[in-house]
Structure prediction request, 273 residues.
Amino acid sequence: MSTNLVKLINYVHYDMWQETGDPRVDSYPMLNGGPWKVLTLSCLYVLFAKYWGPKLMKGRKEWDCRRAMIVHNIILIILNGLGCVTGMLATNMGRESWTCRKLDTNDHSFKSYLLINLGYLYFITKFIDFADTLFFILRKKDSHITGLHVFHHAIMPLTAWVGCKFFPGGNSALTPLANTFVHTVMYAYYLCAAMGIRPEKYMHLKRRITEIQLIQFTLVLAHSLYSLLHPNCEWPRALAIAEGLEAVTFLKLFSEFYKRTYLSHTSKAMKSM
Prediction:
């Protein structure tokens, strides 16, 4: 292998990402170099969720994962809750995530690192979220492992990595801020379900969580459009476009899930009356 080819491979594999990334996150695990580790973990997750996991459990009895699920949910409630509170305080209750300010890689203030750590916490929780699928597999709830479920869990670490690597803090704070709030509520519901708290009068909460997720994606889309249409916005247009495309994708997928899961059942019930 020629020296020039080796240099090119090293540049594409590592140097290019270091030159274009935010130097303040170089010391953070998984953010040094390129996205290869994250991409590998996401691919392994998809293979396990769709093939290896169900094949491993084929012919075996389901596992009792209740205690592990309770611990898992408590951990995510704490992490997301802390992230949400930190983000609200660091962004003046979210207002500063709409300022369109240019990213300052030389800003080493305490506040800037609060926002960077908020983004990094958001990034790390995307890997912890993989356990949701693991519990479905061990409990032999394969019907819960839908295409939307797998796609959502697989793509989120990659999009979170991009935000943390290149644009931590500032305008980028809105997505992790909204997401940590939604996930705090969602995992609180999952915790109640794992603990056996399932009174019928509270079951509508599952539907409300999906509605909150739809509001989240709508808010992120509005944030993207605001950044693109603001005449003096210094936030990168490429990131605003990527944010908008991700929001539209999930808004479409979750809307279809909502209609299929809730509205179709409602309409069928009304027809049978």
Q: What stands out?
A: The CA atoms of residues 72 and 183 lie 13 Å apart. Confidence is low (pLDDT under 50) at residues 269-273. The first helix runs from residue 3 to 20.
